[in-house]
Amino acid sequence: MTQLVTANEMQQIDQYTIDVIGMPQDVLIERAAMAVVDVVGAGHFDLNHVLVLAGLGNNGADGVAIARLLYAQGINVSLQFVGNVNRAKDSVKRQLSIIEAYGVVRSEKSDFNEATLIIDAIFGVGLNNDLPEGLQKMIKAANHIEKPVIAVDVPTGVDATTGEVRGAALKAHTTVTFGFKKVGLTKRVGGYLSGDTIVKDVGMLVPDDFEFSLPIMQATVTENATI
Ligand SMILES: NC(=O)C1=CN([C@@H]2O[C@H](COP(=O)(O)OP(=O)(O)OC[C@H]3O[C@@H](n4cnc5c(N)ncnc54)[C@H](OP(=O)(O)O)[C@@H]3O)[C@@H](O)[C@H]2O)[C@@H](O)CC1
Ligand SMILES: [K+]
Q1: Quick one: average pLDDT of 154-177?
Q2: Which residue's CA is the closest to the ligand 1 atom numbered 25?
Q3: Nearest ligand to the C-alpha of residue 60?
Q4: Chain centroid to CA 201
Q5: What's the CATH fold of domain 2-217?
Q6: Which is deepest, 20, 60, 93, 167, by most CB within 10 Å?
Q7: Do the Cβ atoms of 130 and 162 come closer than 8 Å?
Q8: What local confidence, expressed as pLDDT, does residue 224 receive?
Q9: Which 8-state DSSP code applies to residue 207?
Q10: Predicted complex ipTM
C-alpha cells in the first residue's frame, strides 16, 4: 500500500515539516543523504569510482552531502557540480563549504567513462521546465554508455507529477525517493526511467488535515504473489 503524491504535495509537506514543525532543512538533507548512502553500500553496485552529479537546488544539496558521506567512508568519489554555482541555493552553498574541509575531488568535466556508479542529484521535484540543451546532451551521453545510475528522489529530467521527460532524462537503475512515492515515478516514461524505486523516510511530517489528491496505490501484482 503506497500513498502517491504529486511534486506540489511533496513540496507542501517539505515546507510544513521545516516551517511549521521546525525541522531544520539541513537535518532533512543529511537524512536524505544517509538514506541514499545506505542503498549505495547495499552491495549491488561497483563503488570503484563513484561520480556524484549535483545541481543547484536542494536535490543538489542532497548530492553534495552524499559525496561527503561516501568520501568519509573511504570510497573513491568525485563531485561534479552541474549549473552555475553562483545561482545555487543556500542549502547547496552550505554543503559545498562543509565538503571543502573534507578535500573531496571536484571534477569539472563529466568523467563518465571512469565512473563505475553515477549518483544523480541534479534535479528532483523542483524541475519546472525542459532541461537546458547542454544538460540534455550530457544526459543522452550518460544514457548511451549505460553506467549504473542511482537517482536521488527523482531521475533528473522526469517530471515528478506527470512522469513525462522534460527534454531528456537519466535512466536510473534505482531511485531513492524521500517521504512518499511521487506519482511521476509510476507512470509514463517516468515509471520506466526510475528503475527500482525505494521510498525512504527522512522525518517529514504531514499536516493532520492534509488532503492527498491521489489514491493509495495497491501493491503491484508481484507483491501480491501469495494471492
Ligand atoms: N525541501 C526539503 O526540505 C527537502 C528537499 N529534498 C530534496 O530537495 C529536492 C527539491 O529541491 P528544490 O525544490 O530546490 O528543487 P530541485 O529539484 O533541487 O531543482 C533545483 C532548482 O533548479 C531550478 N530548475 C528547475 N527546473 C529547471 C530546468 N529545467 N532548468 C534549469 N533550472 C531548473 C529551479 O530553480 P528556479 O528556476 O525555480 O529558480 C529549482 O528550484 C527534492 O527533490 C529532494 O531531493 C530532500 O533533501 C528532503 C528535504
Ligand atoms: K535527481
Answers
A1: 98
A2: 127
A3: 1
A4: 14
A5: Rossmann fold (3.40.50)
A6: 60
A7: no
A8: 37
A9: -
A10: 0.96
